Amino acid sequence: MGKRDLTDTVVVVTGAGSGIGAAVTEQLLEAGARVVAADVRPERLGAVVDSWGADRLVPCGVDVGDPEAARGLIASGVAAWGRVDSVIANAGVGYFGGLLDYSVEQTESMVSTNLLGTIWLARAAIEHYRARGGGGDIVITASAAGLGMGGWQESVYAATKAAQIQFATSLDREVRKEGIRVAVVAPAAVNTGFAAATGRFGTTPFEQGPFLDPSDVATALITCLEQPRTLRTSLWQLQSLAEDM
């Protein structure tokens, strides 16, 4: 059957302003998709808006921890192009440190963004898919930390990522008979500022780190959408050749 053509499909991407989210947004646009690009800091989306224009991309400044924001993202896709075909729950927050090192605000932020932000977007997507019929895709960016591979300084972050993985695999069983596919991609270390925060890159700029490039993870996320509708990916774990786990 070959891979599914994403031309003119409508995809919501959260955390689209940097890192994996920025890479997946660019790759989707290059594949011909139309994108609702969401980020808590919408100024980060300026360059991609300038490059692609309003006919291909709708930028949204939202906090994904707000359930109404998720409905608003779906509504933005419907208003611009009449529908949403897929959502990629990519927004994430992480802090390193022992359990007692996290502030209340940091702890709540990880739970709200990583877990609740994923749940709210999935709920809004399923409401839309059921209303219009024909199924759809929900793809979640989790982490290998949620598979018990987290380091000793990320217990709360790892817990939220484990919850994302369990949520995805359980939701998949709930909705797959409706043609709604739920996939979760769990990368290990990625060359981002978050991964560099532990000092493991030394003096090397994080963009030149030895681990997964954000574009590597973006390729996996998009592959979940491009696979024929007869296939689905439940859990895809990614590791770089440089990482020993």
CATH architectural designation = 3-Layer(aba) Sandwich
Helix content: 40-55%
Order of helices and strands: EHEHEHEHEHEHHE
Task: Name the quaternary structure.
Answer: single chain
Give the strand line-up of the largest sheet. Answer: 3-2-1-4-5-6-7
CATH class: Alpha Beta
CATH topology name, in short, is: Rossmann fold
Ends apart, CA distance between termini: 35 Å
Radius of gyration, whole Å: 17 Å
Shape: globular
Short description:
By secondary structure, this protein is an alpha/beta fold.
List the helices and strands and how they pair.
Elements: E1 10-14, H1 19-30, E2 34-39, H2 46-52, E3 57-61, H3 67-81, E4 86-89, H4 104-132, E5 136-141, H5 155-175, E6 180-187, H6 193-196, H7 214-226, E7 235-238
Summarize the structure in words:
By secondary structure, this protein is an alpha/beta fold. The protein has one domain: NAD(P)-binding Rossmann-like Domain (Rossmann fold, 3-Layer(aba) Sandwich), CATH 3.40.50. It contains 7 helices and 7 strands; from the N terminus they run βαβαβαβαβαβααβ. A 7-stranded parallel sheet has the order 3-2-1-4-5-6-7, with helices on both faces. Helix 1 packs across helix 7, helix 3 runs parallel beside helix 4 and helix 4 packs parallel to helix 5. The longest helix has 29 residues. The radius of gyration is 17 Å and the shape is globular. The model has no long low-confidence stretch (mean pLDDT 94).
